[in-house]
Structures are given as structure tokens and as C-alpha cells.
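job 3f2a | input accepted
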Amino acid sequence: MAQTGLNPDTEAHKLRTLILNARKPLVLRNFKMNWKCFEQSLEEWCTNYDKEVNSLTEFELMPCNQGNNTPHWECRRESIQMSLSQFLEKQKTFTDKFWIGLNYQRMNNIPNVLKEGIDFSRLGFSDTTNECNYWLCSTQTNTPCHYDTYGCNIVVQVYGRKSWILFPPNTPLSCTRIPYEESSVYCEENFYAPNTKELQRLSEMHESVYRCILNANDVLVVPRHWWHYVEAVDISFSINYWIPLENDIEEQLKECIVKILIERFVQSGMKEEQKYILNPNQLNEIESDAEIFTILEYLCKNLKTDCSTPKSRRLNVTRHPYQYINEQETQKLIQDLPAGMIECVSPMQRNDYEILLKQNAKRFNATQTNNANPLCDIKRALINSVCAPSVIEQIKKGFFKRYGQ
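job 3f2a | predicted structure (405 res):
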């Protein structure tokens, strides 16, 4: 087990151990991280951001009645430039015609004064400021349902509220690698506005669904490979950190295999097809054979060394052991912490789940189909079949057998 440098009897050490061994989602309610930069109101923070940055910021904008036949993929979103204060002002006259958001923004791109004090030392993880990401978004801003192939996720709700719907790793959602984003496996089901067919399919998963509403100062722990669909309940600001894990390296190698396959599919296709298959943040990440096979060789040679990090291919971070104590010991750890500190997210009641799905289904508008799809059905089916997680796992095993792992 990696040395933490923390006294095993401290609260931070216990929380760290709990986070690295959680088998189901956990919430720390009203757990103040004591980050100095957020002692002010959201309005004050945004005003200071505008002063420090002194330029307009590019937000994503999504008309809520578009893309009803698919989730709100990034490639379907528009962009709009405004200051953060202008964004907040717009929310005073918010309508449900569109949502606006800054999604998956890197903390290392903002001035130091706006992130003063941010670290996860209260949870046993220090020196994480520049590895964090932040989201600032309006009501109904959502992230399509997916799971992260790397790391486990800590989410701090700084302002506002967000709804999280979660499913265990083995839930039979319809995996898709279109759009392709390294380290994210999406599902085809549209939780934002399910159609009649999807409503029926999602209803059948009532025994597997978990849900929590994160309020300001709540902290959510999402275990490795848990599916999640996230939607802002009101104006929301949240920060997350993916904890690098020792077993990420195999996932990173599998993602390298997926990247090789996906990029070979798009190389001979039209530009519009490429933009449809690749997530926008991957369009400038296409690599040559020499580059990608150098990375693959490096990953193979360093399979048992320190060379993995979540949501990135940087190879020089400290990785952590994962799920190294059993569930009984994990439960005892929860009991050792102050009463009420840890809330185990409970399975959602079937009736509540049905109500939520039907409420979301009202958003679906059959007249707004938005069928701008340049990809033929046979190519889509082939890509998703070849790149399915179960198939990639078999390719990895065969590759290891032939390459001497």
C-alpha cells in the first residue's frame, strides 16, 4: 500500500481510506472544504474573475428542444461569449428554451487569486489544485450519461444544486464510443428527454438506479466505472478531482487501443463525419502511427510503474491503491467517523424513479428530431461493435499474450 504521510488516526486519513475503498457512491453532507477563494458569494467570485481575466469567456449554449432524439452531445452545442457577470444576469430572466454552461474547465487556466486555498487535504489528498476541473452552469445544463474509464471521482458542490443519477458498472446501458472522448464511455439512452422506447428501457433498470441531489458544501464520491447522468437543478458551481489509481494503467492502455481503432475509422471519412464521431476536444488530438504506437509501447513497458492519470495522458503522477480493504472494514470505517458525516447514497425508490423519467420525457418533442447525422447506420454499428468495452478487453488480453505481458 502506498504511504500517505498521514496519521492513520486522523480524520483525513480515514476519509482518504474510505474514498479509495468505496464500492457505492457516498456523500459528505455540509462538509465545508474551507477554500478561501469561495468564502465570498458566487456573484463576487464571478465579478473578481471578470476583473482578473479582463476578456469575454466562451460558454456552451444548448437549445433545450434540439437533439431530442439524442443526448445533448457536445458537438450539437453552440457557443456564446459573455462575462461571468453577464451569465449570472441572464439567469434572472431564465427560460427553459436553452441552457448555458462552462463545462469541464481546467482550474490551472484561471488566475491564482480565484483558486486560493483549493486542495483536497481535508479528504487526505493534497497538491491537487491544478488537477481539478470546474463547472459553472444554468438550470438544465447536463452531462450525458457515461462512465469514466480512469480514476474515481470526488465532486465538491460549491454553489447551487446538481442532480446525480448513478448506476453500478454492470448495468446494461447501451455503450457507445460515438462521440469518442478518451476516458469517457457514453450510453445512447437520453436521460434528459427520453422518447417512448427509451422510457420503457430505462424503466426496466429501476432496481439499479441511485440518485442524490448535491447541495452547496456537499461532497460526492463516485466509485470507479459507475455510470452517471448529471443535471443542474439551479445555477451551479462545482469542482471535481479524479484520483489517479494504480489500476488505471490497464484502462489507459485499453483507451489507447480504442483511439487507434477510432482514428483509423475517421481518417478516410468526410470532415463532417469526423466531427460527428469525435468529441470536439478530440478533433485536435489525432496522432500519427509513430506517435500512438510509441505511447502504446511505453504503456506496455510501464504497466507496473507510476504512469497513469485520470482524464489525461500525462504519465508522471502518483497513483493510489484501490479497494484494498473489504466491505466489512469499509463499513467499520464509516462507523469510526463522526455520526452523520457520511451518507451512503441509497437505491432510488421505483415510484420516484418512474416519476422522474416521465417528467423528463415531457421534454421530448417528436417534431424536433434534428437528424443531422452524416454517419451511415452500418458504420455506426461497426464502430460501436469493434470498440465495445467487452471487445476491447479481449483485444487487450490477446495483445498481452502475443506481446509477452
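job 3f2a | The domain at 15-245+323-361 is CATH 2.60.120.650 (Jelly Rolls).
job 3f2a | closed
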